[in-house]
Structure formats: C-alpha cells, structure tokens
Design brief:
The chain is built from 5 helices and 15 strands. It has 344 residues and is of the alpha+beta class. It has 3 domains: 88-143; 159-304, YVTN repeat-like/Quinoprotein amine dehydrogenase (Methylamine Dehydrogenase, Chain H), CATH 2.130.10; 306-344, no CATH class. β10 and β11 (257-262) form a beta hairpin. α1 (3-106) packs antiparallel against α2 (112-127).
C-alpha cells in the first residue's frame, strides 16, 4: 500500500522538475531575444556612426588634396606671370637696344638710313607701340626714296594714269602708251599710234583705255593692247573722257567739235559744236550730259542722249508738223501722228 503513493509522489516531482526546467529554458530564451532586440539599434547606430566618420575622413582628405592642387596651380601661375614679365622686360630691352643702335648708325654709314629703319621696324614688331621705335622709322622713311616701281620709256613721258582699281598704270611717251602692273612694273601691253600720244584715260571698270594721238582717239583693251575702236576727227584731238558706265567716249578736237562715240564700236552718236578749238571734255556723274571747254572763251553743257535731246526739243518747239507738211516731208507711207505729244 505504501509503494503506490511513493511512485505517485516521484512522478509528481519529476513532472514538477520538468515544468521548472521548461520554464527556465523559456525564460532564458526570452531574455536572449530581449537582449538581441535591444542590441540591434545600438549596432545600427554604431555602424552609422562609423560610416559618417569614414565619410568625414574621406571629405577631409579630398579637401586637403584640392587645397594642395589649388596651391600648386597658384604657384605655377605666379611662376608663369613672373616668367612672362621677365620675358617682356627682355623683349623691351632688346627693342630699345635696337632703337639705340639704329639711331647711332643712321648718321654714320652710307646704308645707315636703311639699316636704322629696319632696326626700328624690328623694334616695333618686338616691342609693340614704342615711341622711340616709331620716331626712328618715321625718320628713316623721310630719308628713304618712296619709289615703288619704275617703268622706263625710250623718251620723255608726257602723260600717266591709274586704272580705277589701282592694278594698272599707263604712261605715255612718243608714239606709244604702255600699260604696266603697278605693283611690279611689269609691262602688260603697248598701245601704238601713228602720231605722238598726248593723252590717256581708263574706263571706270578698268577694262578699256582710250589714248589720243593726232587726228584720232583709239580705244584699247587695257590688259591685251588689242585695238577696239578708232575715233577720227577732222583736226587734232585734244581731250577724251569715258562715260560713267564705260560705254561711251567723248572727245574734243581742234575742229571745234565735242563728239560722243560708242566705245565698243567707234560709232559716233552725238556732235556738239563750238566756235573754236575744244580743249576739255567731261561727262556728268550720271552720264546724261557733257561739258566742253573751248578756246572760244566758253564752257558749255550739252544734252547728248537721244531721249534727252528729244525731250528738250519738244519742250522748246512751238508745234508739231501740219498734215500737209507731213505728207510733203515725211510721206504718206508713214501714218501721221504727233511727234511731240501735247503740242498742237
């Protein structure tokens, strides 16, 4: 009877011990879980603090490196500026030395003006605007010849002219007019008359030249010397001029006339008459009229274009032809009409 209660008692103790052990393990696990939950934020904060510290360290290192680079750049700039200033001072000293040498030799040796001027030019090229060099060059230029090119004739030169673009120069001597490249003095063409050439002129576009010799004015292609037209008066030609568009030439003569010609064909298109020699002629800037001067003590302005001559004539005429006058002088084959509209 006693063994049964003892077994029950042992069983109860074992159960109690098991429950106590389970409760202890559960408690330990709960404590461990709680500890882990509390440690996680601290670990995150510690990791974040470490990351911030490392980032700050990198930023500080970068700033120090940038400062070092900037300092190096400033130092290099200062060295370059100092070098440039030193080079400028050396260049200026060289320029001033050249000027001093140029001033010294200019008056002492035969080639002094040439050498001195060259030294002045070199000083200006090296030193920039430099008054001493400026004055040395100007002094040299005053002593040096100003000739650019020289064109030689076989006799006296009596007339000269430039083409409008400055490319060609023409000079007259004896029976010839010679066309030259102005910059080189190279002869381009030779224009030969039968009589002594006394005057020469270029067309406004420089394509043609007109020369005067004896009874004729001759139109030439300036670049080739090819004769284009020959304009003949009854007495010596004294003056010529081109119209502003280059299509016409006006000439004056000892025969008392000023005549307008087509430059390309030599066809006479107008003739104005003085009482004595015509000694000067010119076109107006718009080409509509001609002025001529004469030894008859007059200068006269003329309409020469057909349309202007027609307008002037109709302005001054009192009436048109009558019908019977038309029949007699014009003829029935041409229908009668008013030659000057608006006139009776």
């Amino acid at each position: 009877m006693n063994e049964k209660p003892e077994r029950q008692e042992r069983t109860q103790r074992q159960i109690i011990l098991g429950l106590a052990a389970g409760l202890l393990i559960t408690s330990l696990l709960a404590v461990a879980a709680w500890s882990q939950r509390n440690d996680a934020p601290r670990q995150r904060e510690a990791a974040q603090a470490t990351a911030v510290s490392e980032a700050n360290a990198r930023a500080t290192a970068q700033a120090e490196a940038e400062a070092q680079r900037n300092a190096a750049v400033r130092e290099a700039g200062m060295r370059a500026t100092a070098q440039a200033e030193a080079e400028a001072q050396r260049t200026l000293a060289q320029a001033l030395q050249m000027v001093a040498t140029g001033q010294l030799v200019s008056d002492r040796i035969p080639q002094g003006p040439l050498i001195g001027t060259l030294l002045g030019v070199e000083a200006l090229q090296r030193g920039g605007p430099l008054l001493e060099a400026d004055q040395l060059v100007r002094r040299g230029l005053a002593l040096l010849p100003t000739e650019v090119t020289r064109m030689t004739h076989n006799g006296p030169v009596t007339a000269v002219a430039f083409s409008p673009d400055g490319r060609f120069a023409v000079s007259v001597g004896g029976l010839t007019a010679q066309v030259w490249e102005a910059a080189t003095g190279h002869e381009v063409a030779r224009l030969t008359h039968d009589s002594e050439v006394t005057a020469i002129a270029f067309s406004p576009d420089g394509r043609f030249a007109v020369s005067v010799g004896g009874l004729t004015a001759q139109v030439w292609e300036a670049a080739t010397g090819h004769e284009v037209a020959r304009l003949t008066h009854d007495s010596e030609v004294t003056a010529v001029a081109f119209s502003p568009d280059g299509q016409y030439v006006v000439s004056g003569s000892g025969d008392g006339t000023a005549r307008v010609w087509e430059a390309a064909s030599g066809r006479e298109v107008a003739r104005m008459t003085h009482d004595r020699w015509v000694t000067a002629v010119a076109f107006s800037p718009d080409g509509r009229s001609v002025v001529s001067g004469s030894s008859d003590d007059t200068a006269r302005v003329w309409w020469w274009r057909p349309e202007d001559l027609i307008a002037e004539a109709c302005r001054r005429l009192p009436r048109n032809l009558m019908w019977d006058e038309w029949q007699r002088y014009v003829g029935p084959e041409v229908p009668y009409h008013a030659t000057c509209p608006g006139k009776p």
